[in-house]
């Protein structure tokens, strides 16, 4: 009997140990994901506004990718939100395959990071020794946010009205400068999200709720010090009750109309309690410490919500709308149900006829490319001389084939090409070719002694450098981005004498290559050259072949393989001395990021360029300008109706 009992005990102990081990593993499996989800493994630090990594910096110049955001601040600021940074980077769209194969960290739509480079040229560096400039591959603009004329930071009319009050005017001026600079620093970190936020800021009308939050904030700061004093037990108890009551109300109410009755009495009681607390002799250092803790918590919360909002904005502008995805899928399915007929031989001859006016559009967006073509032919004097070549990828090829076969554009001819089917002369290994769209960059100069300025560039992508091989028989083409709208006849472009230049483009001389000399490393830079814009480009393919522009570009890309923003660097250097400056009147740019553009200027522009993240086909598009795009989209089209595109 004893032996039997004694022999059973060890087995029972082993069974209990096994159960405890299993429970411990289950508990750990629940706690570990929670710790990482909340970011507790990074500790708690002060607030900091950091997002994605910068593409590259030089002493005065920083370069960022199209969909990245700048990263400023010291090490502690970077550590504070590392968890959120990692989350945002993981959820952002992945880089396109062709870009990843060519260089690290850059894409047509991307976030990237890079090492530090040297500064601006000496003469500019000395003038702005403490200044910062940033080049960010996105698309935004800022000129003072509110667009009002500024005189020493104040609107001119206000300055005149208060000219007799020097001290007051100076203080107000400094305040406005601080606000304006804060908006620009926000743009430096978060890009066009800050412009969108500024122009969609809702007016806060729930003043009672705000007042309750303010009183609760103050009461929480005083309560710990009051609670430590035995003589003030009654006040402490009353303050605790008021705090709990306010917390209960605010937990279920966010607007004034939902507040319970008699809320005014509760406000009066809280104000009286706070007044008594302020009249008491308490340790000011404790109150100060509590206030600082509350400020830190509030700043952390505001930072989190701003970063979260910026991320959701980035997600919204980078993701194809569901309705557009529906359109592409429906067109593709319909194509295989009823394949479009073979191209008429006469149309095929037009595609190769160098005497006609040829337009090239690189796009993966059916509706956008259709709007470009529709606006061009509607304003053409002779649409029968126009031939449009839409270069797309395999995913959208069949949808575009069906769309352009069923929709007519007056007398113009439309050809759809799959770039992945293009046979290149020098592609012996048959390396797959992938479509890349124009790259867009934001260039911000943040200076200490002068107001910050921001400029926006868009340049050719890798796909554009295949033009001579795709169109062997053509001599001259006009390249249009899929985010432009044409409002005048473009036939005059074929009569321009480009003086032997290769690329006719609108220049942005507010950004000169000399300013970015260190950005190009040891490459030779023409100090008189300006940056240029894609969107509307007249390309002389004969001169392109003679100058071997594609070879130059590929050589530069290979040399810069380990650097960031390769497309921008290589494109600006490749076309150095090969750009013919078109009149600025040809294109009005910035309609995808710039608020406050004069509507009359928009109406009178020859070509509208919606460069920026707020494209006209997105819900986040700037409504004042999207109307100029929407009128070239047929709302009665059955496919658009079925996919709820309106």
TrEMBL record:
<dbReference type="GO" id="GO:0071555">
    <property type="term" value="P:cell wall organization"/>
</dbReference>
<dbReference type="GO" id="GO:0000139">
    <property type="term" value="C:Golgi membrane"/>
</dbReference>
<feature type="region of interest" description="Disordered">
    <location>
        <begin position="48"/>
        <end position="84"/>
    </location>
</feature>
<keyword id="KW-0328">Glycosyltransferase</keyword>
<keyword id="KW-1133">Transmembrane helix</keyword>
<dbReference type="InterPro" id="IPR002495">
    <property type="entry name" value="Glyco_trans_8"/>
</dbReference>
<comment type="similarity">
    <text>Belongs to the glycosyltransferase 8 family.</text>
</comment>
<dbReference type="GO" id="GO:0045489">
    <property type="term" value="P:pectin biosynthetic process"/>
</dbReference>
<dbReference type="GO" id="GO:0047262">
    <property type="term" value="F:polygalacturonate 4-alpha-galacturonosyltransferase activity"/>
</dbReference>
<feature type="compositionally biased region" description="Polar residues">
    <location>
        <begin position="48"/>
        <end position="63"/>
    </location>
</feature>
<dbReference type="Pfam" id="PF25557">
    <property type="entry name" value="GAUT_1"/>
</dbReference>
<comment type="pathway">
    <text>Glycan metabolism; pectin biosynthesis.</text>
</comment>
<feature type="transmembrane region" description="Helical">
    <location>
        <begin position="18"/>
        <end position="40"/>
    </location>
</feature>
<protein>
    <recommendedName>
        <fullName>Hexosyltransferase</fullName>
        <ecNumber>2.4.1.-</ecNumber>
    </recommendedName>
</protein>
<dbReference type="InterPro" id="IPR029044">
    <property type="entry name" value="Nucleotide-diphossugar_trans"/>
</dbReference>
<keyword id="KW-0808">Transferase</keyword>
<dbReference type="InterPro" id="IPR029993">
    <property type="entry name" value="GAUT"/>
</dbReference>
<keyword id="KW-0812">Transmembrane</keyword>
<keyword id="KW-0472">Membrane</keyword>
<keyword id="KW-0961">Cell wall biogenesis/degradation</keyword>
<dbReference type="Pfam" id="PF01501">
    <property type="entry name" value="Glyco_transf_8"/>
</dbReference>
<keyword id="KW-0333">Golgi apparatus</keyword>
């Amino acid at each position: 009997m004893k032996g039997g009992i004694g022999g059973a005990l060890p087995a029972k102990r082993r069974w209990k140990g096994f159960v405890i081990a299993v429970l411990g593993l289950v508990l750990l499996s629940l706690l570990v994901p929670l710790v990482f989800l909340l970011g507790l493994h990074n500790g708690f630090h002060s607030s900091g506004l950091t997002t994605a990594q910068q593409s590259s910096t030089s002493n005065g110049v920083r370069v960022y990718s199209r969909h990245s955001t700048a990263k400023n601040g010291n090490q502690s600021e970077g550590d504070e939100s590392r968890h959120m940074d990692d989350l945002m980077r993981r959820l952002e769209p992945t880089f396109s395959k062709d870009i990843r194969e060519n260089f690290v960290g850059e894409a047509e739509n991307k976030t990237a990071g890079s090492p530090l480079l040297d500064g601006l040229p000496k003469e500019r560096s000395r003038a702005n020794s403490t200044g910062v400039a940033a080049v960010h591959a996105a698309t935004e603009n800022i000129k003072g946010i509110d667009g009002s004329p500024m005189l020493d930071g104040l609107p001119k009319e206000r300055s005149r009205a208060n000219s007799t009050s020097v001290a007051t005017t100076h203080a107000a001026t400094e305040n406005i400068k601080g606000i304006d600079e804060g908006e620009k620093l926000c743009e430096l970190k978060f890009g066009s999200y800050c412009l969108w936020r500024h122009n969609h800021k809702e007016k806060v009308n729930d003043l009672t709720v705000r007042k309750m939050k303010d009183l609760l904030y103050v009461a929480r700061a005083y309560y710990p010090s009051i609670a430590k004093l035995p003589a003030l037990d009654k006040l402490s108890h009353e303050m605790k009750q008021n705090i709990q009551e306010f917390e209960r109300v605010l937990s279920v109410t966010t607007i004034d109309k939902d507040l319970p009755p008699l809320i005014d009495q509760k406000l009066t009681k809280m104000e009286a309690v706070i007044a008594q607390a302020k009249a008491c002799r308490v340790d000011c250092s404790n109150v100060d410490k509590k206030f600082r803790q509350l400020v830190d918590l509030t700043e952390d919360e505001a930072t989190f919500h701003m970063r979260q909002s910026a991320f959701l904005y980035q997600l919204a502008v980078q993701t194809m709308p569901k309705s557009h995805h529906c359109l592409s899928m429906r067109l593709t399915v319909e194509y295989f149900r009823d394949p479009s007929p073979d191209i008429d031989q006469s149309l095929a001859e037009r595609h190769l006829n160098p005497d006609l006016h040829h337009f090239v559009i690189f796009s993966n967006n059916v509706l956008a490319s259709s709007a470009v073509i529709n606006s061009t032919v509607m304003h053409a004097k002779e649409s029968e001389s126009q031939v449009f070549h839409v270069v797309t990828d395999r995913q959208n090829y069949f949808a575009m084939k069906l769309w352009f076969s069923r929709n007519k554009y007056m007398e113009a001819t439309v050809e759809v090409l799959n770039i992945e089917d293009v046979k290149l002369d020098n592609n012996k290994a048959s390396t797959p070719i992938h479509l890349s769209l124009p790259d867009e960059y934001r260039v911000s100069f943040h200076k200490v002694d002068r107001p910050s300025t921001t400029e926006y560039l868009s340049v050719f992508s890798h796909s554009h450098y295949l033009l001579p091989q795709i169109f062997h028989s053509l001599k001259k083409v006009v390249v249009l981005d899929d985010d432009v709208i044409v409002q005048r006849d473009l036939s005059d472009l074929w009569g321009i004498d480009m003086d032997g230049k290769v690329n006719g483009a609108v220049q942005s001389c507010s950004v000169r290559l000399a300013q970015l000399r260190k950005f190009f490393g040891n490459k030779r830079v023409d100090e008189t050259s300006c940056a240029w814009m894609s969107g509307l480009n007249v390309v002389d393919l004969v001169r392109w072949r003679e100058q071997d522009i594609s070879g130059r570009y590929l050589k530069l890309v290979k040399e810069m393989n380990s650097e960031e923003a390769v497309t921008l660097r290589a494109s600006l250097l490749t076309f150095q001395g090969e750009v013919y400056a078109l009149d600025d009147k040809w294109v009005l740019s910035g309609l995808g990021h710039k608020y406050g553009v004069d509507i009359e200027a928009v109406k009178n522009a020859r070509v509208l360029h919606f460069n920026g993240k707020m494209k006209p086909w997105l819900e986040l598009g700037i409504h004042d300008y999207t109307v100029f795009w929407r009128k070239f989209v047929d709302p009665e089209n059955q496919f658009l109706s079925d996919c709820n595109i309106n």
